[in-house]
Specification:
Two copies of one chain form a homodimer.
Chain A lengths: L3 H7 L2 E4 L8 H12 L5 H10 L1 H9 L8 H12 L10 H8 L11 H11 L1 E6 L3 H11 L5 E4 H4 L6 H10 L7 E5 L2 H9 L3 E5 L21 E3 L2 H7 L3
Parallel strand pairs in A: 1-2, 1-4, 2-3, 4-5, 5-6
Helix pairs in contact in A: 2-3, 3-5, 7-12
C-alpha cells in the first residue's frame, strides 16, 4: 500500500461507488419490505432483486438491450421476481413506488459525517452504475453532500468499463492517479486500478445482511484499506 | 404569467442557467484582470472573451469542430484575443491559470441564500453550457448547494438544443412542465418553453457591467419574472 501522506498530496478527487459502499441496500430493502409487504421474506427478496442486477447490465453491455438506466433495469428484475414472492398481484402504482426504494436507500452510519470531512479537502463525487436521478434523490433524502453526481448515465457505460474510470479523470482534467476510487468491491477497484486510478477499499461486512458476513480482509493491491469513511478521512488527512 | 401557487404544486426541479444568472462573469473577470494584469482594460477584455463564446459553440453545433468542452472553447478564444490586449507574451502556465478564471466566478449576492431556500422544497440543478468540472469547481469555491450538476457535457449538446431541456426532464423521469428553467436570458427561456418547460426570468441588470445596464423589463411569456433568487423563493413558496 502507498504511504497515506503521499496519497493526500496527489489525490484531488474521490469517486465513490454507491450501492453497498455509501448506502446499505440490503438493510434498506428489508426495511421497505417489512413496511410495505410484511408477509414477504425481505432478506430473500432483497438478495433476489440485487442478484438480477449484474446479468441485466451484462445484457446492455453485450448490446442485447439498448442503453438502459438502472431504474428501468430494477423494474425489469422486479417484475420478474414478484411472482416468486407471491406479489404478482401488485398494480402499476405499487410497483413504481417499490421500484423507487432504490432512491430511498439509507446511508451507512459513518457515510454522511465521513463525506462532510472528506469534502473539505477533496472533490467528492459518485461513480455509480445508478442513474443520475436515482443518485440525486438518494443524496437529497440521505444528506449525502456530493460536489457532483457522476454516473454510468454520463458515460453511457457501466462499471467496470474503462470509460467510466477514465471519464472521471477527464471530467476534472486530471491525471488518473489524481483520482481515487472508493469502493467496498474488489472487482470495481480492480477496474479502476487498471485505468491508473488510486484505490481505497472500505469494509462493509454487513452488505449482504447480518446472516452473510462478507470477507473484508485486506488485499495489498489497494492503496488504502479502511473500516469506514471516518477512517478514510483520517488516512487522507481530512 | 401562471399563478405562483399552481406552479409551486407542479414544479419539482429547478434547472439554472449559470453564467450571468447565478454568477457574475463580467465582474469576476474584471477583478481577475485587475489582480493579474492591471494594465489591461478588464471591462473590454471580459466582453471580448465572452463575445467569442457563441460563435465557438456554433462551430461545434454545425459540426466544424468535434464535441468540445467550454474550458477548451474558452482557451481557444483566450489565445485569440490575448494579442489584442498586449498579452501575447503570456506563457502556458499563465494562460492555463487565466483560463480557469471561469471556474472562479463569484455568485451574485443573493445566489447562495436563494438556492439554499429553494433547495429545501425543490431539486436544484445546473443546466449550463459550462462543463461538469468547471461547474463543480465553481460550486465548491462559491458554496453553491446544487443537488446535481447537469451540463451540456452530459447531453453532448449546447443550449438551446432541445436535447438539453428535454434531457433534464428525462434525467428525473418527469414531465417537461414539472421542470422550470431559471435564467437571465430570454433566448434560453424561449428554448426551454418550446420544449414544454416552465420558465422564470431573473433580472441581472449588471450582467455586462455597470456601464451597460441590460433591459430587464418583463415579458408575458415567462411564468415568473423575479428580481433575484430570493424573490424566486418567495414566488415558489420556498
Amino acid at each position: 500500500m502507498s504511504h497515506p501522506t503521499a496519497l493526500a498530496g496527489t489525490v484531488r478527487v474521490l469517486a465513490f461507488d454507491v450501492f453497498g459502499t455509501v448506502v446499505d441496500w440490503h438493510g434498506s430493502i428489508v426495511r421497505e419490505m417489512a413496511r410495505l409487504h410484511p408477509q414477504v421474506d425481505g432478506d430473500a427478496f432483497a438478495l433476489a432483486w440485487r442478484e438480477g442486477y449484474r446479468p441485466a447490465m451484462a445484457r446492455v453491455m453485450r448490446g442485447e438491450l439498448g442503453w438502459t438506466r438502472i431504474d428501468d433495469l430494477h423494474r425489469m428484475i422486479l417484475d420478474d421476481i414478484l411472482p416468486r414472492f407471491g406479489l404478482q398481484g401488485l398494480g402499476e402504482a405499487e410497483r413504481a413506488h417499490l421500484n423507487r426504494a432504490w432512491h430511498r436507500l439509507d446511508p451507512w452510519p459513518d457515510s454522511v459525517a465521513g463525506l462532510e470531512r472528506l469534502k473539505r479537502r477533496y472533490t467528492v463525487c459518485t461513480l455509480s452504475n445508478g442513474n443520475i436521478g436515482l443518485l440525486t434523490d438518494m443524496a437529497k433524502r440521505a444528506g449525502l453532500p456530493w460536489d457532483c453526481v457522476l454516473s454510468a448515465e454520463v458515460f453511457r457505460a457501466y462499471k467496470p468499463d474503462p470509460a467510466t474510470y477514465r471519464g472521471v479523470a477527464q471530467v476534472f482534467d486530471l491525471q488518473p492517479e489524481q483520482v481515487m476510487l472508493v469502493a467496498a468491491h474488489h472487482d470495481d477497484l480492480e477496474g479502476a486500478r487498471a485505468c491508473g486510478l488510486r484505490t481505497a477499499y472500505i469494509e462493509r461486512p454487513l452488505e449482504f445482511g447480518a446472516a452473510r458476513p462478507k470477507d473484508v480482509s485486506p488485499r495489498p493491491e489497494n492503496d488504502l484499506h479502511c473500516a469506514d469513511f471516518l477512517a478514510l478521512a483520517d488516512a487522507l488527512g481530512a
